[in-house]
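DM from R.C. (forwarded with permission)

"hey, sorry to bug you on a friday — could you get me a structure for this? deadline for the figure draft is monday and I only need the backbone to look sensible"
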Amino acid sequence: MKWAIRTIAVILVIVVLAGGTWVFVNRRDVAAFLPMPSAAYAKFMCSSLFVADMSEEQARNWSQLSVPVKEVRIDYQKKTVTARALFHTNTARYVDDRCGCSLE
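My reply, with the result:
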């Protein structure tokens, strides 16, 4: 039993070190990825609400991402959607019928 626990611990340490090394080597790419989920969600929600005239429930279902979005604020008067995910906040604003929505 001790041998199995020791083996699992060694494998876990190796996986953590390998993952940490990968993140360190690719830190610029990881940093560039972090704002993307909140930006994509805000843009999808804005477009589906103010361009496609979907209901809020339909827009939320259509805008689902694999990364969980922590907070969403919809301002119907200003026609903006603000989303927060992975410690980043992005806002999409409805511009007009021709341009649709744009990230701020």
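R.C.: lifesaver. The longest helix spans residues 2-25.
me: no worries. The chain is about 50% helix and 25% strand.
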